[in-house]
Amino acid sequence: MKRFSWDELMNRYPALFAILLLVVALIINFILQPNMFARDTLNSNMRVFLPMILLAAGQAIVILGGGIDISVGGIVSIVNTILATQVGLNGSPEKMWTYVFVSLGAGILAGAINGFFIAFLRLQPIITTYATSFLYVGFALFILPNPGGGIPAAIANVYRNTTPLGLPLAFYVIAVVLLIWMYVRSTRFGNYLYAVGGNAEAAYETAVPVTWVLFSTYVVSGFMAALAGIAITMLSGSGNAEIGVPMTLTSITAVVIGGTALSGGVGGVAGPVVGAITLGIIQNIISFSRIDTWWETFVKATIIVVALAAPGIINLLRRKKV
Amino acid sequence: MSVSLSARNIVKRYGGVVALSDGNLDVKSGEVVALIGANGSGKSTMSKVINGVVVLDGGQLLLDDKPVRFSSPQAARKMGIATVFQELSLVAKMTVADNIWLTREPLKPNGMIDRKVMREQTEALLDLFSGTFKADLRPETIVSDLHPDEKQIVEILKAISLNPRILILDEATASLDSRQVERLFELVRRWKEEGKAIVFVSHRMEEIFRIADRYSVLRNGKTVGQGDIKEITEKDLIQLMTEKEKVFQFTKAIASEETSGLDQQVYLEVENLTTETLRGISLKVKQGELLGIGGLQGQGQRDLLLALFGDIPYHGTVRIKGEVVRFKHPRQAMDKKLALVPGDRAREGLLYIRSILENFLLPSWRKYGFPLKMKLAKRDAMAISERLSLVMSGLMAPVSSLSGGNAQKVVIGKWLLRDPDCYLLDDPTKGVDVNTKAEFYALLTDLSRQGKSILFYSSDDDELIGLCDRVIVLHDGKIRAELKGASLTKENLIAASMGVSNGGEA
After folding, report:
1. Which of A115, A226, B424, B471 can bridge B292 by disulfide, Cβ–Cβ 3.0-4.6 Å?
2. How far, CA to CA in Å, does B218 sit from each of A186, B31, B139, B169, B390?
3. What residue stretches are annotated with the ABC transporter domain (chain B) (predicted)?
C-alpha cells in the first residue's frame, strides 16, 4: 500500500544519500587507486579523514538542535596552536597528555561561550558563531603568529601508525563515536535534541529544558572540535593558526550530505560521519586524477547543491507523474 | 484529589497591547468551566497564564487557595495543570509516542528510553479514542503524516497522559469531527467524575451548553460575566460576548423560486475528478449557487478545492461555463476568475508578517501597473477593508497583529479586489468569533445574490444547513450523499458523514 516517498525514506534512513554517494566515490577511487583497500593505504586515508569526521559529528549535534556552529574551525586552530607551542617538537609524552586535556578544556570553554550567547542570550547562532570564529582564529594567531612549532614525531607516529588488530586507529575512534551517539540517541537527551531542533516552541511548552539542550550542543561541538584539533595536530605534527579555517564549511557540507537537515530536528550523526568520509574520498579522487585543485571546491559545491535539491527534484518528478 | 484554581484580576500585556486587563476564572474539582469570548478577547492568553506559558503582569493566581506564580510551563505542570493547546505543541518530525511522552519517557536502568513500554502506554492512551480515527494513527507514526484531527487527538492524549488535576482544553474540538467530539465529551465526563477540574475554551455554543457546568465570559480582556450555565441562554451569552446584540440568523442565498429558476446557467461542471484522496467526484454548480460541502474532516474536501484551483494534479474533466479547463497552476485558475480561501489561513492564505495592504493587493498587483499606482491601490484596499469592517490599526499594520476573524477577512478581501466569479472556501469560519461569522454569512449570501458561485466546505454542520440549498457530503473521497430541500437536515448530514447510506438521495 505504501507509496515510495523520498521524504519518508530520508526520514527513516537519513544517511541514505551519503551512503549512495560514498559507494559511487569508492568505486571511482578504486578505479583510480586499485590498492586503496591495502592496509597502509587504508590507514593513511583514514587518519587524514578522522579530524573531519570528528568535526562533522560535533557539527551534526548542533545542527540537529536547530543551530549551526561556524566557529569549529577556529577551535581546531586554537587547539593546534596550543599543542604546537606548549608541547613543542621536543616535548615529553606527559607534557602532551597535559596539553591534550588543556585543549579539550579550551574546546569546551569555546563551545560554552557560543552556547551562552545563543542559548541564554538568544542570539542568532549563525551570527554569533561567525563572530566568535574570528575571535578564536585571532586567539590562535595570538598564540602562534607564524606557522611553526609542533609535537614530537614519536607522538605523532602513535596516531599515524597505530593499527590494532590490523585496522586503522580511526576505525576504533569512529566506532566509539557512533556507539556513544547510538546510546545518546536513545536516551531522554536524544529525544530532547530532536524536539528542540524540530520545534523549539513546542518543546518549551512541553517542559523540555530548551536552553540547556541548546547550550549543551555547542559544548559538545566545541569538545568534538578540540578532538579534531588534537587529531589534525598529530597528523601534521606541526602548528599553523589557519589550519582549521577551511574545515568549517567542509564540516557543514558533510552534515548536509549526511541527510541531517539544516533546519534541525531531522537526521543523525552516522550520516554526517559517512558524509565526512565521502568528502575525504572525493578529495582523494581529485588529487589522483591530476586535475586542478579548484575542482575540489567546485565538486563539493555541486554535491551540496544536489544534496539539498534532491528531495525537491524527486517531488517535482512525482508531481508530474500523477 | 480535590483541587481549586482561581484567577483574580489578571493583567497581561504584550508590548503595548493589553491582552488581558481584568481576567477572572474559578474552577474546582468535578466541574467544567467554559471560558468564552470572541477572537482577540484574551481567551488564549488567559489559558496561557494559567498554565505558565506566559508570566502575568498583574493579578493573582490561587491554587487550592494559596497564591502561586508559575515561571514556566514546567512549574504549572508540576502542580498538576495540563493544557491541550490550540496551536499544537507537537514536534512534527517525531513519532506520536515520542511526542506524548516527551520529558517523561519510561527509562530502562541504563538510562535508555524503554521504547516497548512507551509504545504500550501509547496504545493504551490511543484506546481512549479507538474507532474514531483511521488505522494509520499508531504510536510509531510520524506526527507530520497525520491529519489535523488526529494531531489534535495526540495533543489531547499528551495532556491527559500527565494525569493532571486541572485540564485546559483550548479550542480542542476545533479540528475534531462530530464522532471525535462525542468521544471527547464522554471522556471529559469521566474525568470530571474522577475529580479533575476542566477549563473548556471553545467557540461552539452548542458544545458549551452540552458540556459546561459554569461559564466565564471575556470581552476585550475583561471578564464580563460568570455563572451557572443553566441560568443563561445562548442568546444572552452571545450578547455578553459581543456587546451589541447580534445573533446571526441564516438567510438562504436563494430564498425562493424568484431567483432559483431554471434559467440559471451551470457555471462549474466536474466529471469524475480523481486525486490521491478523491475517487471520482462529479458535480455541477450553478451561477449564484452556494454549494455546501460536508463530511468528516479529511475526506477529500481539501483536495477537491485545491484540485479545482490548479494547486494539485488530478484526473478527470473540469468545465467552466461549458469550456474544458485544466489548470496546472493557481495563476491559471485566478485568470479564469476563481478564488481560494485555504484551510490554514496563517500558512496558506496570508503573508503573516507582512502588512494588510500587501496581503490585500497580492493577487492583484498587475492591476496597478508599473510603476505601482500606490494611491489607487491604497484606496481600493481601504474600500475593501471598510466593506468588510476590518478592525485594524491601519493598512500598514502586519496581518499578524489581527485577530483570527479579522485575518480571515483579509484572505477574503484580497479576492474581492479581483472580483472573482467563483469562490472555493475551505472551512473559512474555523476559529472565527461569532460576530465575524455572522458578517461572513451575510457576505456569502450577498456574493451569491450577485451571481457568484461558491463552493463552501465547513466543519460546522449548522452553517451548511443554515446557508446552503444543496450540500454534498464527502466520505472517503466519494460523494456519499447530496442533500437538499427537505432532506437537508442535521440528522441526514451526520448520518451521511459517518458513511451511513440512507442519508439522502444519493
Report:
1. B471
2. 45, 19, 38, 16, 21
3. 5-245, 262-501
Q: Residues 125 to 164 of A: which have CB under 8 A from any B CB?
A: none
Strands (E), A45-190: 148-150
Q: Do the chains contact at B77 and A207, CB–CB below 8 Å?
A: yes
pLDDT digits (tens, 9 = 90+) for B248-261: 556 665 544 444 45
CB contact under 8 A, A198 and B92: yes
Q: Which of B465, B470, B467, B475 lies closest to B495 in space, CA to CA?
A: B475
Which pLDDT tens digit goes with each residue over B70-120?
888 788 888 888 888 766 688 888 889 999 998 888 888 888 888 899 999
Give me the pLDDT at residue A106, please: 95
Q: Residue B94 and residue A191: Cβ atoms within 8 Å?
A: yes
At B7, give phi and psi (nearest 5°): -110, 125
Across the beta sheet with B4-14, what order do the strands follow? B66-68, B58-63, B4-14, B17-28, B222-228, B214-219, B32-37, B197-201, B166-170, B81-84
Q: Cβ–Cβ of B103/A206 closer than 8 Å?
A: yes
Residue B174 carries which side chain, given as an amino acid letter?
Answer: A
pLDDT at B66: 86
pLDDT of residue A2: 46
**Choosing among A5, A182, A194, A205, which should be mutated to test the B contact, i.e. which has the most B CBs within 10 A?**
A205
> Would an 8 Å CB–CB cutoff place A200 in contact with chain B?
no
**In angstroms, what separates the C-alpha of B313 from chain A's closest C-alpha?**
6
Question: Nearest residue of A to residue B90 by CA position?
Answer: A202
Contact B477, B279 (CB under 8 A): yes
Residue A263, Cβ neighbours under 10 Å: how many? 12
Q: Cβ–Cβ of A188/B105 closer than 8 Å?
A: yes
What is the set of domains in chain B, with CATH numbers? 4-242 (3.40.50.300), 248-337+420-506 (3.40.50.300), 351-419 (no CATH)
- Residue of B49, B70, B93 to mutate when probing chain A, most A C-beta within 10 A: B93
Q: Name the pairing type of β-strands A238-239 and A148-150.
A: antiparallel
Q: Do B90 and A199 touch (CB under 8 A)?
A: yes
Least Cα separation, residue A224 to chain B (angstroms): 23
Chain-chain contact of B92 with A199 (C-beta, under 8 angstroms): yes
- CA B415/CA A131 separation, integer angstroms: 46
Using alpha carbons, list the distances in angstroms from residue B135 to A5, B93, B129, B146.
19, 19, 12, 11
Sheet architecture: strand order including B315-320: B279-286, B266-274, B315-320, B323-325
Q: Which domains does chain A have, with CATH numbers?
A: 6-27+43-316 (1.10.3470)
Contacts of B123 (CB under 8 A, 6+ apart): B139
Whether residue B102 and residue A195 make contact (CB cut-off 8 A), yes or no, is: yes
Q: Are B238 and B247 in contact (CB under 8 A)?
A: yes
State whether A207 and B73 contact (CB < 8 Å).
yes
Planar angle of CA B230, B232, B237, nearest 5 degrees: 130
- Contact B505/B487 with Cβ under 8 angstroms? yes
B111 Cβ under 8 Å from any chain A Cβ: yes
Q: Tell me if ipTM is over 0.85.
A: no
Among B77, B94, B314, select the one facing A195 at the smallest CB separation: B94
Task: Kindly report the nearest CA distance between residue B287 and chain A, in angstroms.
Answer: 31
Which of B77, B92, B102 minimises the CB distance to A191? B102
Q: Return the amino acid letter for A138.
A: G
User: Parallel, antiparallel, or unpaired: how do β-strands B81-84 and B166-170 relate?
Assistant: parallel
The β-bridge partners of A271 are none
DSSP letter, residue B364: G
Distance (Å) of CA A151 to CA A45, A233, A234, B466: 21, 8, 7, 84
